[in-house]
Design goal:
The chain is an alpha/beta fold. It is 56% helix and 7% strand. Helix 2 links the parallel strand 1 and strand 2. The structure holds ligand C2E, succinic acid (3 copies) and fe (iii) ion (2 copies).
């Protein structure tokens, strides 16, 4: 519930003439809590202190800082920009009205004031302000819901692909943690590390299109089977599709490039070195490290030390050599993640 509906709304009255303040207070006191300021500077201070006024009645002509300047500063400060301002003025020229409205005032009251007009204008603008705040709150809640839903769908899609060749879906969870740790350690931005974390689970979504007889084959793949499995990055990119949202753009990039190799021998495009997007180079290491340390239909789990040795050995051929120290830096934390999200044996 909003302030002004629940309790009395607070109105800040600003005027350099004490008598004018007395007159307005007299009109408003019965229904509202009234605060007063005799100068623009004082008004700005009160407007920023809690509880914020729900409305400001602002005299235009004041010495030092006039009402227009006060209004401009109120609107420039995000903390006070939303508070509705009504100008109270003896000036009635159309030009002046336009200037005030352009500065973001919601209404005008002319002096000498008429009490019923003050009452109705204040009541109307407060009701509009309440509606606006209520609407903004609803939009905020809905936006949060949509974001949370989207993240959940993305996680579940990633796991859906993983359930096809790994019954628990833990691979995508572990490898996305490894990828986040590496991304965070590069200090690009927290937001980017979070994006990598949330996009990486979809890296193998294209495996949905790979027949089980290939994916779940207990032994090594023949050439034709290898050709089929190598379509999963392109298929993943097509499943994710083209979107404005940063998260989905990155998810597509990772799906497409996580099997590229630093020396150009990877697939699907044979990209080389820094042609491979950074997120693809990061997820390549996270993916292989987890594939090696986990049990697969076609292989046993390897000890972490053996997996780490493979990653070191493939620096500069498979993996971006600059990312190998980053991988070692996050390894202790990666091992904790591995411990925590371990596949149940048997
Ligand atoms: P995946 O199981 O998620 O493995 C991801 C990547 O980890 C592999 O990409 C490979 O780079 C690395 N990797 C996995 N196991 C080994 C290993 O034993 N030795 C080494 N040196 N690297 C390993 P890759 O090779 O492009 O494979 C892509 C996907 O193809 C694999 O995803 C898996 O689903 C499937 N796959 C690969 N090899 C076989 C296989 O021999 N049998 C079966 N059934 N599937 C395979
Ligand atoms: C394999 O590693 O045997 C199949 C995947 C590939 O080489 O691309
Ligand atoms: C970024 O998008 O913030 C940097 C990631 C990159 O270099 O690819
Ligand atoms: C980075 O681009 O900041 C990471 C180092 C690299 O792989 O280029
Ligand atoms: Fe893959
Ligand atoms: Fe994978």
């Amino acid at each position: 519930m909003i302030n002004s509906l629940q309790d009395k709304a607070t109105i800040l009255v600003v005027d350099d003439t004490p008598e004018n303040i007395d007159v307005l207070s007299g009109v408003l006191r019965a229904e509202y809590k009234v605060k007063a300021a005799l100068s623009g500077e004082k008004a700005l201070r009160i407007a920023q202190s809690d509880p914020r006024p729900d409305m400001i009645l602002l005299d235009v002509m004041m010495p030092d800082m006039d009402g227009y300047e006060v209004c401009r500063r109120l609107k420039a400060n995000p903390a006070t920009a939303q508070i509705p301002v009504i100008f109270v003025t003896a000036k009635i020229a159309v030009e002046d009205e336009r200037r005030g409205l352009e500065l973001g005032a919601v209404d005008y009251i002319t002096k000498p004031i008429s009490p019923p007009i003050v009452e109705i204008r204040v009541r109307t603008q407060l009701a509009l302000y309440d509606q606006r705040r209520e609407l903004e709150k609803m939009v905020r809640v809905r936006t949060e819901e949509v974001l949370a839903t989207r993240l959940e769908i993305i996680r579940r899609l990633g796991r859906a692909a993983e359930f096809k060749d790994n019954e628990t879906g833990l691979h995508v969870i572990r490898m996305s943690h490894y990828a986040r740790l590496m991304a965070a350690s590069l200090n690009i931005s927290d937001a980017w590390a979070d994006l990598v974390f949330n996009a990486a689970p979809m890296h193998d979504i294209g495996k949905i299109g790979i027949p089980d007889r290939i994916l779940l084959k207990p032994g090594p793949l023949d050439e034709e089977e290898r050709r089929v499995i190598r379509t999963h990055p392109q298929m993943g990119a097509e499943i994710i599709g083209d979107h404005q949202a940063e998260l989905l753009k990155l998810a597509k990039e990772i799906a497409l490039t996580h099997h590229e190799k630093w020396d150009g021998s990877g697939y699907p495009c044979g990209l080389r070195g820094a042609e491979i997007p950074l997120a693809g180079r990061i997820t390549a290491i996270a993916d292989v490290f987890d594939a090696l340390t986990a049990e697969r239909p076609y292989k046993k789990a390897w000890p972490a030390a053996k997996a780490t040795a493979i990653i070191d050995q493939d620096a500069g051929t498979h993996f971006d050599p600059a990312l190998i120290p980053v991988f070692h830096e996050i390894l202790p934390e990666a091992l904790e993640i591995m411990e925590h999200y371990t596949d149940k044996k048997g």
